[in-house]
Design brief:
The protein is an all-alpha fold and 306 residues long. It has a single domain, classed as MetI-like fold, CATH 1.10.3720.10. Helix content is 75%, strand content 1%. The protein has eleven helices and two strands. It has a two-stranded antiparallel sheet with strand order 1-2. Strand 1 and strand 2 form a beta hairpin. Helix 4 packs across helix 6 and helix 6 crosses helix 8. The longest helix is centred in the N-terminal third of the chain and has 52 residues.
């Protein structure tokens, strides 16, 4: 009787396993389909921009200023303005964001106040960029009397990306195993020495990942600089922090929406968009190389994970 009942269970187990395999196969097929669709969409967009913009790319286009109502010439001041805005923004935001993340993860006590602060940070990270642009206009341009300037735009972008840098850095610091801290403290190190010598070097790849993504986000923003820094046209690069600048995303917007030569400047629009993509890719690649070197220092020369 016992053997008979066990034999009766075998088909049921096989059926249940077959159903599980069917569900798993369907789920994997669905994931692959969505993944392929996303990758294909990205490839089509990149191919479309590259196909329409590659013809105008040249050394003169990269190194010359725009002329004749921006219908001819190059985009050199636009590239320099974008690099200056992004660089100044990250110089301001990375130290503030990382130190804030250190305080929140290592020194603050868990409780209602910390939960409110973290909820506020996550909320600000999802606020539309145009809101930060209006804030920068009211505070930096008008109240602080910076005017439409490189300084006002950089500070506005820094405030916009600050919640993102804080949240990613805090998650990277929290991901460091607590046993690392215990081992350092057991060896006689102070808490600050533990943070500086153990926690931060271990969390640095994650912090740099957040900085890389933040740089890409800042480079492509239009709304914040539209209200605070971007100029319709400037003959050259800014000579001080209080001068307006041209920027790639705003330049694309101006060429595509303003003036009477929209169709005539269509190749310049795509060329500028392609330049922005290449610039962001280059910044990300530089950040990935630096992050990879940081990991190799800690894990040895044979560590090749990027």
């Amino acid at each position: 009787m016992i053997q008979s009942s066990q034999n009766n269970r075998i088909p049921f187990e096989l059926v249940r396993k077959k159903r599980f395999n069917l569900k798993q196969g369907f789920f994997l097929s669905l994931v692959r389909a969505f993944g392929f669709s996303g990758a294909l969409t990205l490839f089509v967009i990149l191919f479309f921009v590259a196909y329409n913009g590659i013809s105008i790319l040249s050394w003169e286009f990269i190194t010359q200023p725009p002329i004749e109502a921006m219908t001819k010439g190059g985009i050199f001041p636009v590239i320099v303005g974008t690099i200056l805005l992004t660089t100044l923004c990250m110089i301001v935001v990375i130290p503030i964001g990382v130190t804030t993340a250190i305080f929140l993860s290592e020194y603050s006590k868990p409780g209602l106040l910390l939960n409110i602060v973290m909820m506020s940070i996550y909320t600000l990270a999802g606020v539309p960029s145009v809101v930060f642009g209006l804030f920068g206009l009211a505070v930096f341009v008008v109240a602080f009397n910076f005017g439409m300037s490189l300084l006002a735009g950089s500070l506005t972008l820094a405030i916009m990306v600050l919640p993102y840098i804080i949240s990613t850095s805090e998650e990277a610091i929290k991901a460091v195993p607590y046993s690392f801290r215990e081992a350092s403290l057991a060896c006689g190190a102070t808490k600050w020495q533990t943070i500086r010598k153990v926690v931060l070097p271990t969390a640095m790849p994650g912090i740099m990942t957040g900085a890389i993504l933040g740089t890409a986000k800042v480079s492509g923003e239009t709304a914040p600089i539209m209200f605070t820094a971007a100029a319709f046209f400037t003959p050259g690069v800014p000579r001080s922090l209080l001068e307006p600048v041209m920027a790639l995303p705003y330049h694309i917007y101006v060429l595509a929406t303003a003036g009477t030569h929209i169709e005539e400047t269509r190749p310049i629009q795509y060329g500028t968009a392609l330049t922005l993509i290449v610039l962001v890719f280059g910044m990300n690649l530089l950040g990935i190389i630096l992050r990879s070197r940081q990991r190799k220092k800690r894990h040895g020369r044979n560590y090749r994970y990027i």
